[in-house]
Design goal:
The complex is a heterodimer of chains A (247) and B (267).
Chain A: E1 27-31, E2 39-45, E3 48-59, E4 72-79, H1 94-107, E5 119-129, H2 134-148, E6 158-165, E7 168-171, H3 175-180, E8 183-190, E9 195-203, H4 207-246
Parallel strand pairs in A: 4-5
Antiparallel strand pairs in A: 1-2, 2-3, 3-5, 6-7, 6-8, 8-9
Chain B: H1 3-17, E1 33-37, E2 45-51, E3 54-65, E4 76-81, H2 98-114, E5 123-125, E6 129-141, H3 146-160, E7 162-169, E8 172-181, E9 188-196, E10 199-202, H4 206-211, E11 214-221, E12 226-232, E13 237-238, H5 239-259
Parallel strand pairs in B: 4-6
Antiparallel strand pairs in B: 1-2, 2-3, 3-6, 5-6, 7-8, 9-10, 9-11, 11-12
The chains are: A alpha+beta (247), B alpha+beta (267).
């Protein structure tokens, strides 16, 4: 993975897009952006553009996958063919299949699944443009979409990647840092409980760096959590406005 | 989790409270590991691993192929896993599903991050012809912790691999009868822990996996650094639990390195 000749920091210690190591990219989250879905959200994190639709709880299909005591989550993470430099085939890649699984497992701990026995909740994630950190941005947006669908949850799930470039830990890798850095460690947390629901890593990290990574991630997650709450509040403020107008 | 597993969870948790597991192990005790290399004659490298009652076989096949455009002077590593119904009634026949793909990708990332196989030594004609290393993992009997068993099988099979020596004369590749071991930079082991209720256990059995809230795997290289992490399952971990699990994994890794075949001595 290591490449010579590409510098990920300038002389002032700033990153390729001018950020400091612990700085996240500009973020914008919107809730309720789709008409047909029961809940939806849109996130822009740097150059990432991701749309999430939630349907349900509805009858489980196929019927035999229904669970007698809880809802089943169906999660599909998919990248649009035009979301990356070289066209990505619309067929699900092995990466997308794995990510669908780990994203589902990152969201499940936050949902009161037992409140919806024998049903299914769909989470469809469409990455429209990708620039590093799409799985974590997807989780951040998906939990907003689930809340927007009115599904009972313990907490939102907020996610960010910590990585390593030129031996230094950095937060929220962009595509370049993801490609040429030495490691990537996506982390998802339920902020109110400080419970980790997604945790992966590739690249080499010392045992001490893993502790440090959580400290760095928690700062970024606080910021993103506020954005998530703001997005949900904004949607409901608009709903209240509409209701007041019609009365 | 089915209703039966819910009942089973009560029983397992009651045991864990007393520091006991259903198979008599302590919470942080690993099962017995046996590794048999050279099991498949037709493969360039192979290993059959027993981890308690879990059995996994890994085979390495080597072929000449084209490099990826972004790494023209590097060999190619491909890891595949097939959860065949031979190993368990919970595996369905058919194309690989989420579990198969996750298993293969977790093993692949650990080996790749650690640069277990030195891919820079596997170019034959840089830019056009390189060695491709296929690592195929087949669980044969599933009694839990397929990740660690698959990791041991894959790593042992790589350590067992003998590849032909390629000679290039005017863009023509000839393979000599001489065989040499794969260039191995470091060995890698995988340690998986499961969380059941408030308890963290090492090397879960199938029964324990069924009732577990979540699992966490660490891939560890010979420098005792972490070269891969994967959380799985529908539960969550406290940060404190993750850091504790990491510490345990590093300790458990020592025993696993002893079980692995040694690194081939380079010529």
């Amino acid at each position: 993975m290591k490449k010579e000749g590409i510098r990920l920091f300038n002389d002032e210690g700033k990153r390729t897009d001018g950020r400091y190591p612990n700085e996240i990219r500009p973020v914008r989250i919107e809730a309720g952006v789709l008409k047909n879905a029961d809940g939806s959200a849109y996130i822009e994190l740097g150059n990432n553009k991701i749309l999430v639709a939630v349907y349900g709880p509805h009858e489980a299909v196929p019927k035999y996958i229904a669970e007698p005591d809880k809802a089943v989550i169906r999660c599909k993470y998919s990248m649009a063919p035009f979301s990356v430099s070289d066209r990505k085939s619309p067929q699900p890649s092995r990466r997308e299949i794995e990510l669908s699984k780990v994203i589902r497992e990152a969201l499940e701990p936050a949902i009161f699944l037992n409140e919806y026995p024998r049903t299914m909740i769909d989470v469809f994630i469409e990455v429209l443009e990708a620039d590093g950190g799409t799985r974590t941005a997807s989780i951040t947006a998906a939990s907003v979409a689930l809340a927007d669908a009115g599904i009972s949850m313990k907490d939102l799930v907020t996610a960010i990647a910590v990585g390593k470039a030129e031996g230094k830990l950095i937060v929220d890798l962009n595509g370049l840092e993801d490609q040429y850095g030495e490691g990537d460690m996506p982390i998802a947390i339920m902020p109110q409980y400080n419970e980790v629901t997604l945790f992966q890593a590739d690249g080499i990290f010392t045992p001490e760096e893993i502790e440090e990574a959580f400290r760095l991630a928690s700062e970024a997650i606080k910021k993103l959590y506020n954005e998530q709450k703001k997005a949900l509040k904004k949607k409901y403020e608009e709903v209240i406005k509409e209701v007041n107008q019609t009365e | 989790m089915g209703v039966l597993s819910l009942l089973k969870k009560e029983v397992i948790l009651a045991g864990l409270k007393k520091g006991e597991r259903t198979d008599g192990r302590g919470l942080l005790e690993y099962r017995k590991v046996e590794i048999k290399t050279g099991y498949i004659g037709k493969a360039e490298g192979s290993a059959l691993v027993r981890l308690g009652d879990t059995k996994v076989i890994a085979g390495v096949k080597i072929d000449i192929g084209t490099p990826f455009p972004d790494t023209p002077d590097m060999g190619v590593q491909i890891v595949n896993a097939e959860l065949i119904p031979v190993a368990s009634a919970v595996f369905e026949p058919g194309p690989p599903g989420e579990e198969d793909i996750e298993l293969a990708r977790v093993i692949d990332r650990g080996l790749r991050s650690a640069e277990a196989v030195d891919m820079s030594q596997l170019a034959i004609i840089p830019g056009s012809r390189v060695w491709t290393i296929f690592i195929d993992i087949y669980p044969l009997d599933h009694d839990g912790n397929l990740i660690d068993a698959s990791g041991l099988a894959a790593m042992s099979a790589l350590l067992d691999t003998k590849m032909p020596v390629a000679e290039v004369v005017d863009e023509n590749i000839t393979l000599s009868e001489n065989k040499k071991p794969l260039p191995i930079k470091t060995r890698v082991v995988y340690v998986t822990l499961a969380k059941i209720g408030d308890y963290i256990i090492v090397d879960p059995t199938f029964e324990e996996e069924l009732v577990a809230d979540a699992r966490l795997t660490f891939a560890i290289n010979e420098d005792r650094n972490i070269c891969g992490i994967q959380k799985g399952g529908s539960g969550s971990f406290k940060v404190k639990e993750i850091l504790e699990a990491k510490k345990i994994a590093l300790e458990v890794a020592e025993g696993l390195f002893e079980k692995l075949p040694p690194k081939p001595t380079s010529e």
